[in-house]
Amino acid sequence: MNAETLTLVLVVVTALGFDFTNGFHDTGNAMATSIATGALGPRLAVILSAALNLVGAFLSVEVALTVTNAVITVQDADGAPKPELVEGGGHALLLIVLAGLVGGIVWNLLTWLLGLPSSSSHALFGGLIGAAIAGLGMSGVNWNGDGSKLDGVVGKVILPALMSPVIAAVVAGIGTWVIYRLVVGVAARFTENGFRWGQIGTASLVSLAHGTNDAQKTMGVITLALIASGHWSHTDAIPLWVKVVCALAIALGTWIGGWRIIRTLGKGLVEIDSPQGMAAEASSAAVILASSHLGFALSTTHVATGSILGTGLGRPGAEVRWGIAGRMVVAWVITLPAAAVVGGLMWEIGHVCGTTAGPIIVFLVLLGLAGWMYARSRMNAVGAHNVNDEWQGTPSATLPAPKGVAA
Amino acid sequence: MIDNLQFALEGAWKVLLAGLVLGAGLPAVFAVGIRSLAFGRGGSAEVDEQAAPHPIGKVLAGLCFLVVAYGVVAGILIVVVSGMGKEISFDHVWPQISEKS
């Protein structure tokens, strides 16, 4: 295997790794509320969500080859990579993509360790932006688009991130308030049961939409790498095997379940009852579907979190833990720059170490960091068994309480 | 920058409007359905356990759930159709699928 092929293989593996973290990072967006209210058992919930993500990923027949165009300038408008970046087996482009993916994965894992629902798309975009700045300079980034449509870092990332949680919170808040007004006089045991079905239906819709939106991004990135290295030449189609492995990776990730994030969303932010759960997921589903229908790019995570917050605000007397909400907002704000810093650093490492060793060393650094964070997470593991325990604090990277102390 | 802000605000209020109709409106209809179902069943479904059953409530509940089901099917259609690279329009209430313009 020569150096170019090896680099390509590393890019594909890393992209699938990102897709996997994308799956488990976002399980909670769809299923946290159903798990918290007991509408679905934790295991059943993640299996349902994984299956729908798989179906959703296969539904995305439309080519998502231009995914990087939103934030960086390594491709032309039709998806073909810039000719100057594909000379000599496409190493220049592959290294940017590899470094960007590593930035996205590292940030996804760190926020997962801290139990924070940050946006996977922001992590990916951030990593790519950092790698592009390191590799191509400031001109490598598409900051504002060309003014003809919503585009660039500002239009596709920053503005939607500011607006979408607010929209979702308003919709969920009003929905919750109206629902509670409408069912006054109905016994709680009756409403709980009815709304559980509503919850399951709406959460399933969110899962399906997630599979369609997010798996596409990885498919686009892998196909771009294949084109850059001369292994694929169509800019209007994605190889079938890419579609299959991406769909499987995101579904597998979802099935593993990001329990730490599920717990924060379902138990930490607000205490949720079934009617609230349904209001929150209905708001998420409607906002996600409406915006993808209207071409308004947004993050599933921001919408889901905004909805859950809104449902806490809409129910009189419900408690919203603002400390946790504040931590999430901080995580959102720093996701893009932090992933960019990692992406940029990785590009420098890969660049300094040469075309053969560079990508291998970057990959090893990724494995090392991922392994360390996984080991750290085992110290206070969150899983299906304790995801719904009484909320006593954020599952953070802090060490577990000493033995003998009720933790 | 200014262009983007304008496009974003344009998109945002449409999303908000659609979100309110589908994301808050449909759950409200669902809640009316639950309310009607309880009214239809009477007895232990209501806070006042002496409430008599009212068959009309069940009919009303059925109607409400139909409306909600239509909304859910429409949602799935949006996912499927846009995934296949086509366009869907709800201008005539009943969804119409066409090639992307």
TrEMBL record, chain A:
<feature type="transmembrane region" description="Helical">
    <location>
        <begin position="157"/>
        <end position="180"/>
    </location>
</feature>
<feature type="transmembrane region" description="Helical">
    <location>
        <begin position="123"/>
        <end position="145"/>
    </location>
</feature>
<keyword id="KW-0472">Membrane</keyword>
<keyword id="KW-0813">Transport</keyword>
<feature type="transmembrane region" description="Helical">
    <location>
        <begin position="329"/>
        <end position="350"/>
    </location>
</feature>
<feature type="transmembrane region" description="Helical">
    <location>
        <begin position="240"/>
        <end position="262"/>
    </location>
</feature>
<dbReference type="InterPro" id="IPR001204">
    <property type="entry name" value="Phos_transporter"/>
</dbReference>
<feature type="transmembrane region" description="Helical">
    <location>
        <begin position="6"/>
        <end position="24"/>
    </location>
</feature>
<feature type="transmembrane region" description="Helical">
    <location>
        <begin position="92"/>
        <end position="116"/>
    </location>
</feature>
<comment type="similarity">
    <text>Belongs to the inorganic phosphate transporter (PiT) (TC 2.A.20) family.</text>
</comment>
<feature type="transmembrane region" description="Helical">
    <location>
        <begin position="356"/>
        <end position="375"/>
    </location>
</feature>
<feature type="transmembrane region" description="Helical">
    <location>
        <begin position="44"/>
        <end position="72"/>
    </location>
</feature>
<keyword id="KW-1133">Transmembrane helix</keyword>
<dbReference type="Pfam" id="PF01384">
    <property type="entry name" value="PHO4"/>
</dbReference>
<keyword id="KW-0592">Phosphate transport</keyword>
<protein>
    <recommendedName>
        <fullName>Phosphate transporter</fullName>
    </recommendedName>
</protein>
<keyword id="KW-0812">Transmembrane</keyword>
From TrEMBL, chain B:
<protein>
    <recommendedName>
        <fullName>DUF4190 domain-containing protein</fullName>
    </recommendedName>
</protein>
<keyword id="KW-0812">Transmembrane</keyword>
<feature type="transmembrane region" description="Helical">
    <location>
        <begin position="59"/>
        <end position="81"/>
    </location>
</feature>
<feature type="transmembrane region" description="Helical">
    <location>
        <begin position="12"/>
        <end position="39"/>
    </location>
</feature>
<keyword id="KW-0472">Membrane</keyword>
<keyword id="KW-1133">Transmembrane helix</keyword>
